Amino acid sequence: MELKKRLTKIISFHLIFLLFGCAYYSMAGSIPVNIKNVSIPLFNNETVEFELSEKLTSEIIQEISSQNIIKITNDIDSDSIINGSITSVSDGPYVFNNNEQVSEYRFSLSVKVAWIDNTDDSALFEKTFSAFGTYSIDNDPSSDGLDNDNDGIIDGDDSDEFGDSRELAINVAINKIAVDIVNTVLSTW
Length: 189
Ligand SMILES: [Ca+2]
Ligand SMILES: [Ca+2]
Description:
Largest sheet: 6 strands, mixed
Distance between the termini: 47 Å
CATH class of the largest domain: Alpha Beta
Helix content: 25-40%
Number of domains: 2
CATH superfamily of the largest domain: Lipoprotein like domain
Bound molecules: calcium ion
Order of helices and strands: HEEHEEEEH
Oligomer: single chain
């Protein structure tokens, strides 16, 4: 009799857990079922930095299609739309050497992004993203002793570290932001 009571307790506990589990699950998957595709028009660029929006927009599109998250469409009747605006960029000193000269700079950018449900114009998320890349003025990225793209591989060992060092820092920052945005789309899902 005692055992039977205990068993009933255990079973009802599991039942409650299961029910709560389901409730949590359905809340996590709160994207309206009507959203089957997304359009991603070229982001606005409010800064004077050249070609940033082209780079960032195509990086996001590439990231979303390679992960097969949601269908991307150019259709003006899309279910949803991702709007973005690059609001600021800056080149600031990041590391000083012993002579108090700047040895590393940091290129930073901020982007305001909203994912809109077109049926009622509500925002699935609305968020500002920031990222940076570092570069040195004196050396080229293949010999500056820096891990420019932060992947743990430095200079000659990293086939990505070449060319104009500021350009590379910009690409690194754009790549980080694109990954961040796509992760936010995924977590909204
Ligand atoms: Ca690297
Ligand atoms: Ca380097």
